[in-house]
Design a protein that fits this description.
alpha+beta; seven-stranded mixed sheet; six-stranded mixed sheet; 15 helices; about 30% helix; globular
């Protein structure tokens, strides 16, 4: 029995992107962004779960209980409370037995954790059917690489910089190449925590103000395209350079939020000001130089080059030409320009380097999932509750595959049979893709 609606749930470590696709109406009701946390407010003397956080009036000294720790779902009680709110009549009003579910999971998710996902979906909520996949696996079904007059690329490389980690994921024909996936242990959470420590040491004690410092990061920080020049500018003219910004801290007594001070704005006697100087660009610099805080890892550009070097030599040029950015950290001003600058110096001379940005990097995986739900592949990739009750997790493993087994059949990724002469590399179709129709001459001329 086919269901009339599909719940799309991009279950991020910081934010849940959720919505419903109604197959009978042919449209969706739009995406909703829900904090993936249970929050205790000292000022309000109340606890807010997921979608209720918007009702909070005092965001100072919030205590967060996060379902995700170090990139993996570990607090199922908190996660269930948040999901219960999402599926209730207050948000989506989901009738689970008559609905399908598409949910995203972390990269390299542990098998035991995957089994708990399955049990929650079919035993706790009793969904009719569901599909579990990683966010990057959905991107080929979206419009991130869409260019008018050209086919979607068969080879692409996704940079997913989210809350816990930054991953580099190469994909061939909807098939994740797990042997070449790389992980950088720098995400939005680490950047926020690092900014808290720096601010607390230099100016105000902000160690308990996670919400406020995260807003400061999103409002003030940027990726520098000339790091040492900006550093010297701040050194020569402290607090008076063109880089320095004044952030007016929120005052919840009179219910005013935090904001960047505009030129000509006169401070009130009660205003407290946080001066952001080199913190604006030294914090995001950790994505490119994680060794600044003692992480023994190379930066993101080197990690992208290392990932591509593990792929077939004949295909590397196609990956350099189709790099896509998703995740909240990629929205930082200057991120695209800095990454392009450093990748150009690492790429082979004959390769064209192109980076594709999303209109909204946070919801790109969700919007791409809508394309997968509407595709012919979706119904064949679903596991029904009847199949789960009869065969257990084995039915799901057969259909979704698993990164440990080397099977890239997850998330509707079509597994293409490979011959022995190709050394296990998935075979590309004979249709010319964007990168293959480019000539070496045109590439060289553009580079010059």
């Amino acid at each position: 029995m086919a269901t009339s609606q599909t719940v799309v749930l991009d279950n991020g470590g910081s934010t849940i992107k959720v919505g419903i696709v109604r197959t009978d109406l042919g449209d969706d009701g739009g995406v909703r962004l829900i904090p993936n946390a249970v929050v205790r407010s000292k000022g309000d003397k109340a606890t807010f779960v997921g979608h209720e956080i918007g009702r909070c009036k005092d965001y100072s000294a919030l205590h967060y209980r996060l379902p995700f720790e170090k990139g993996y779902l570990v607090d199922w009680d908190a996660q269930k409370a948040i999901w219960d709110g999402l599926f209730s009549s207050e948000v989506l009003s989901v009738n689970a037995p008559e609905s399908s579910l598409l949910i995203t999971e972390p990269y390299f998710n542990l098998p035991n954790v995957q089994e708990v996902y399955d049990q929650f979906v079919f035993e706790e909520y009793e969904f009719h059917s569901y599909h579990r996949c990683t966010p990057a696996a959905m991107i080929p079904y979206g419009q991130l690489f869409a260019v008018e007059g050209l086919q979607m690329p068969e080879c692409s490389l996704i940079v997913d910089s989210g809350f816990s980690f930054t991953h580099v994921i190469p994909i061939i024909n909807h098939q994740i190449q797990w042997h070449a996936v790389k992980r950088l242990d720098v995400g939005g959470k680490l950047l926020t925590n690092q900014l808290k420590e720096v601010i607390s040491y230099r100016q105000w004690n902000m160690m308990d103000e996670t919400y406020i410092v995260n807003h400061v990061k999103e409002s003030c920080c940027y990726v520098s395209t000339n790091f040492f020049a900006d550093l010297e500018t701040c050194r020569l003219k402290p607090k008076k350079s063109k880089i320095a910004l004044e952030y007016i801290l929120p005052n919840y007594v009179i219910n005013t939020g935090g904001t960047v001070r505009e030129p000509g704005y006169e401070l009130a006697p009660t205003d407290q000001v946080l001066v952001m100087e080199n913190e604006r660009f030294t914090i995001p610099e950790l994505l490119f130089r994680p060794d600044d805080i003692g992480l023994e890892q190379s930066g993101l550009p080197s990690m992208i080059a290392a990932s591509i070097s593990l792929l077939s030599e004949d295909l590397r040029g196609m990956f350099w030409a189709n790099i896509g950015l998703i995740g909240g950290n990629t929205k930082l001003p200057g991120f695209h320009e800095r990454l392009m600058s450093e990748l150009r110096s690492l790429a082979p001379v004959e390769c064209d380097v192109q980076i594709y940005r999303s209109k909204d990097a946070i919801t790109e995986a969700y919007r791409s999932s809508l394309g997968f739900v509407r595709s012919a592949d979706f119904t064949t990739r679903l596991v029904t509750r009847a199949e789960f009750l009869e065969n257990g997790t084995h039915a799901i493993r057969r259909k979704f595959g698993h990164w440990q087994s080397g099977d890239s059949g997850k998330s509707g990724e079509r597994v293409v049979a490979s011959s022995s002469s190709t050394g296990g590399v998935p075979q590309l179709s004979k249709k010319p893709s964007r990168s293959r129709i480019r000539t070496t001459a045109s590439i060289s001329s553009r580079r010059r």
